[in-house]
Amino acid sequence: MAATLAEPITVTPQPSGFGAQVTGLDLSRPLDAATLGQVKDAWARHALLAFPDQPLSLEALEAFTLQIGPFGVDPFIKPMAGHPNVLELRREPDETSKNFGAGWHSDWSFQKAPPAATLLRSEVTPPVGGDTLFADCARAYDALSDGMKALLAPLQAVHSATRAYGTQGAYAKETEARTMQIIVSTEAEKTLTHPLVRTHPVTGRKALFVSPTYTVGIEGLTYQESHAILGFLYQHMTQEQFIYRHKWTQGMLLMWDNRCTVHFAEGGYDGHLRVMHRTTVAGDVPV
Fold it and tell me: What does the pLDDT read at residue 5?
């Protein structure tokens, strides 16, 4: 049965307009069509939405995810038992391995149709550290010169999961114990191309679609040429003016748009338990 809201939802944007907090919702119950439309409109405008104080069960998280769209495919990480579309990002107090997600990336950009959305809920929030940084790749693109935009327009970026999940990747070389079950695979070493500048299917805005984690080159260019262009873009898009720093609170749900953002998970909570539950929403082939 659809939820009946006592009052309209409140959307409070960040000063830049990149990111917003949404209150007035109980996501443990299905949203009616009008309210869901408000949420999706706010997500399109602000690229990431924070929903504080959402004590959701895994089933409720799954149900809300499906209201946004069908589940995406999450490779290389073992899902939760009984919940094949939920990943538990868990780090025990005594773990010394690098925190998961500690590199700028757009989730699973190496897939033919990368996820449109990622939803992440804080189940156990440590008292220190653990911020997630987001870069606005649409505003970063807008800030480029016309000459640079013209240079980038025809380029195809090469994406691969090899640096993280390949047989010679970062996780394959780990020596410290990790609670999360990472799946190292030769499948991660495959490559595919996406437009370096992609057009958002809802807003029509153009955004840079590259990251140092999953972009391994530019089609048709030498390593040195790719390295020079990509290195400039990474430095440009992660300037302070394009960054939103998200601070987690207990029971908060965050939903972000992988089509126009990259993110970076900070550590700083050694000695504390941290538990997050994550789902993804299927996306389109980038154009």
Answer: 45
Contacts of 15 (CB under 8 A, 6+ apart): none
Closest CA to 253 of 36, 55, 14: 55
Residues in the chain: 287
Cα 276 to Cα 259: distance, rounded to the nearest angstrom: 22
User: Tens digits of per-residue pLDDT, 226-256?
Assistant: 999 999 999 999 999 999 999 999 999 999 9
Q: Rounded to an integer, what distance in angstroms lies between the CA atom of residue 117 and that of residue 278?
A: 11
* Cα distances (Å, whole numbers) of residue 107 to 8, 32, 90, 120, 241: 32, 29, 18, 12, 22
Query: 215 with 188: CB under 8 angstroms?
Result: no
Q: Say if CB 104 and CB 135 are below 8 A apart.
A: yes
Report the candidate in 276, 283, 284, 282 with the shortest Cα–Cα distance to residue 254. Answer: 276
Tell me if 211 sits within 8 A of 104, measured CB to CB: yes
| pLDDT tens digit sequence for 58-102 | 999 999 999 999 999 999 999 999 999 999 999 999 999 999 999
